Amino acid sequence: MSVESSRILLVTRIFGFVFVFVLVSVVVLATLPNRMFLVSENALINAPVQTISSKINGQVVDLSVQIGQEVAPFAKVAEIENFERDNAIAMSMRMELLQLTDRQKALHSTIDRTSLQLGLIREQANATKQGLIEDLKVLARKAENQLLAEESRVEEQESIFLQKKSLVDIGQLSETVLTQYKQKLDAASHRMETARDDLTRQKNMVDSIAQGVYSGGLATNLMSLEFQEKSLDMEHRKALSELEIVRSRVGEIERMVAVEGLSNSAISSDNVLARQPGRIVSVEVAPGETVAKGAVIARSMSCDESFVVAVFPGREVEDVIVGTPALVNVRSLGAKYNGRVERVVRYYSSGAETRYFKKFPDAEGHEVYVFIRVDDTAQETEAASASDKKYFGCNVGEEVIVALGEPLLQRAANLFRSSKPLMVAEAATVSGQPEVQQGVEPSAADHDRIAALSGDIRDLVKKKRGIKPSVRE
After folding, report:
1. What pTM was computed for the model?
2. How far apart are CA 328 and CA 402, in angstroms?
3. Contact, 47 vs 392, CB < 8 A?
4. What does CATH list as the number for 36-78+279-416?
5. Cα dist from 305 to 142, 340, 354, 357, whole Å
6. Distances (CA, A) of 368 to 94, 306, 343, 344, 472
7. Which alpha helices (H) appear in 31-170, and where do they start and end?
8. Spelled out in words, what is the top-level CATH class assigned to the domain 89-252?
9. Which residue spans traverse the membrane (predicted)?
10. Every domain of the chain and the residues it spans
11. Cα gap 8→50, rounded to integer Å
């Protein structure tokens, strides 16, 4: 082959390799998972809110918190006084006890009535069912006798037909007469099959009614009785369940009266305490204001419970799993935070409007909610400093942009950083050099291991060159 041909072949091969490399690159880029670039602008940072409520009716005499203040568990939030609390509670308890006593009597009457009616209806239903079964058994026996009679007629007609056929065979009888006997035999067979079907139907009806499966016809009365039985049984069970609830409430009221020893003149006060650590996000009352039992005094929130909720089309995130990396961009600050997907749900009810700091984003029927837990540290940008965190220290209530997955360069960098220590360890293992900490003198065993490995390498080189390796002790 000439030099010019070799050069042409070399250039052709180079272009071929370049073409294959470009083609493979295009295919790889085309098959990259889209979830690495999923973005949602319908997202916000949210957190559950704890309500701090009053346990009594009264007047707020002291308010110990303000918006933005941090509170610890069992920290005092407010103090409420009520001069007529005991008397009002005692009166309400007595009224409730009277109402519950009347309700108990009515429930006992309902239970007795339904029990009596259930017994009568069940007896009537069983009697009707047994009578219906006996009637059907009589009809079945009649159908069985009819079948036996028809089978006898068939045998008789078949015997006559065979006799006449023998006469036809010897020429003493015409084919026309034989046809008449054949028709009589077919008619008898038809009546026999009809009687057999009737017997089967009667037996099936007996079995069905015995198993409680029936509809219409002879079982109409039985169906009506069983419907009444089910209605009474439902009423009976409902009354029993309600009676248990009433008895429990009566016992609770009696215990409260016995334990508290309600008086008519005592001045009662109550300290409203925070149940969980957090930060006060709203104060609903003012000193001197009168509040009812269960009224909300304040609301608190903990940044440790904050999360990001984002709305994505369901088909786009069907491959997203728990732990998928996410990037959260706070719009108003330009701060970016890393996070991980905690869960993906299609339908999520946020409950009462006051359960969370802010209402969840609206989602269509084909969309899902993706919940993300944000890391405490932000990416290294000038805008992402701790001092920029507003809304009670964790940007709660802020609208954000969420991107699921990692960019290719960042993923490659993470893989390289995670694999670098492993590569160093493998290199140390292959070279035979033990990992020696800086400032620590190698031991005698380490020196022996290095010498032995060096001898093995020298023997391998000699063998490669065709020199017989030396024998070591």
Report:
1. 0.42
2. 5
3. no
4. 2.40.30.170
5. 80, 14, 16, 11
6. 51, 19, 11, 7, 71
7. 85-169
8. mainly alpha
9. 12-32
10. 36-78+279-416, 89-252
11. 79
